[in-house]
Amino acid sequence: MKQELIEAVEKKSLRKSIPHFEVGDLVDVYYAIKEGDKVRTQVFSGTVIARKGRGLNEMFTVRRIINDEGVERIFPLHSPTVVDIKPVRSGKTRRAKLYYLRKRTGKATKLTHRLSEHTGPGEPASNKQAAPK
Description:
- With about 130 residues, this protein is mainly beta.
- The protein has one helix at about 1-15, and strands at about 25-35, 40-50, 60-65, 70-75, 80-90.
- It contains one helix and five strands, in the order αβββββ.
């Protein structure tokens, strides 16, 4: 009974449309910054190295390199301060958490690009044409 009430209250606060992104993807996170009485939107782009939690408590960690210094930021997925999340490209990973990227520098931080199932809407994944009979 108690759990059902909590889920009903949380359901109202959940974000309706969340783009599909996974660990290893390069994303642009647009978030609102309040400066005095003004609100502006700033972009933080980087690689998603972790996702944790579920429901209203779901968080994701984004890492990027600025001036040879690694910067990580943890964003709540359903927060009203996160205005938009735009996946730029998907990376190929074999782990759920990419904390090993913290020890790497330069080109070693790049992940290989993962090709999706479909190259575009309505197009087949392979570009091979059937041989004429």
